[in-house]
Amino acid sequence: MGRYEVTNAQVAEVFQWAYDNSKVSANSSTVQNNSGNPQELLDLDGSGQISFSNGTFFVDSSKDDFPCVEITWYGSVAFCNYLSEKEDLTPCYDLSNWSCDWSKNGYRLPTEAEWEYAARGGSNGDNTRYSGSDTVDLVAWFFGNSGGHSHETGTKAANELGIFDMSGNVWEWCWDWYTSYPSRPQTNPYGPESGTRRVIRGGSWFNSEIRCCVSYRLSNYPDLSSISYGFRLVRAPVC
Predict the structure, then answer these.
(1) Residue pair 177/195 in contact by the 8 Å Cβ criterion
(2) Among 15, 21, 28, 176, which lies 20 to 30 A Cα-Cα from 113?
(3) How far apart are CA 220 and CA 199, in angstroms?
(4) CA distance 193 to 37
């Protein structure tokens, strides 16, 4: 599990590699994958902090280490594949149908179960309301302290596993289609096989402290992007 949310600098670097290798197309408004099932990956004419001009991705001044926003679920998945290829790992995802091969060694999104386990501090967790504390201001950028914007990653306290910003700053896309939790215990569940909305977790700078609780669940359509939606990486296969 990544200690930090994926930053603007990371997304700009990986999408630049993907663009230079003809894996994506881009203009001043959007980024789209060239192979597989084409989808918008990153909205560049919203309120994000990355722009594109003359074949080059740019990050706004002093925003390199802020979490990337305005990225869709599709964009988060595609980023995982491109970063895997860039580092000579085997991609987990098939972009023609947006399925996951859990046996591959590349980067991927966390399942919702992985996300919540990490947010609760794993076996080291103290069952706190927020990720790492019962005091939201210590671990989260939320509506009450954010000043109306996201913040550089890792500037609040980490949780028991040394992971930052799992409460607040930006919502984080997870792999799973959204549904109610199953009634029986499961081991490393991948979520339902189909659905209409993907899980997002953690709350954001835009939300009240209630939505930053580790138990709070939300979802949205995978082609939707937002100034408060980002993501985090995992790499080790769950199986």
Answers:
(1) yes
(2) 15
(3) 7
(4) 18
Give pLDDT tens digits for 135-170. 999 999 999 999 999 999 999 999 999 999 999 999
**What single DSSP character describes residue 8?**
H
Degrees, nearest 5: CA angle 165-170-174: 90
Task: State the amino acid at position 13 in one-letter form.
Answer: E
Q: What are the residue ranges of helices labelled H in the chain?
A: 8-20, 73-86, 112-119, 136-139
189 phi-psi bin (left φ>0, alpha ψ -120 to 50, beta other): beta
Q: Tell me the chain's radius of gyration from C-alpha atoms.
A: 17
Domains of the chain (ranges plus CATH)? 8-230 (3.90.1580.10)
Model pTM greater than 0.85? yes
pLDDT digits (tens, 9 = 90+) for 49-68: 999 999 999 999 999 999 99
Secondary structure E strands in 47-177: 50-53, 56-59, 93-94, 99-100, 171-177
Phi, psi of 222 (to 5 degrees): -70, -15
Q: Which residue bears the tokens 């189909």?
A: 194
